[in-house]
Design a protein that fits this description.
Layout lengths: L5 E7 L4 E8 L25
Antiparallel strand pairs: 1-2
């Protein structure tokens, strides 16, 4: 079986926007309560008007 290519997204549900998408590098199924591994990342966001 090929390795999974999982991603995590931070969403703004109110405005229907995707804010950030990053990889999850442990290639495990993401479920409630299990730990995940996310590479180091930084992002910036503008303050709402």
């Amino acid at each position: 079986m090929a390795a999974l290519d999982l991603h995590i997204a931070l969403l703004d549900d109110t405005n229907g926007k995707v804010l950030v998408v990053t990889d999850e590098i442990s290639d495990q199924v993401i479920q409630t309560g299990n730990l995940i591994t996310v590479p180091t990342w930084a992002f910036g966001m503008n303050q709402p008007a």
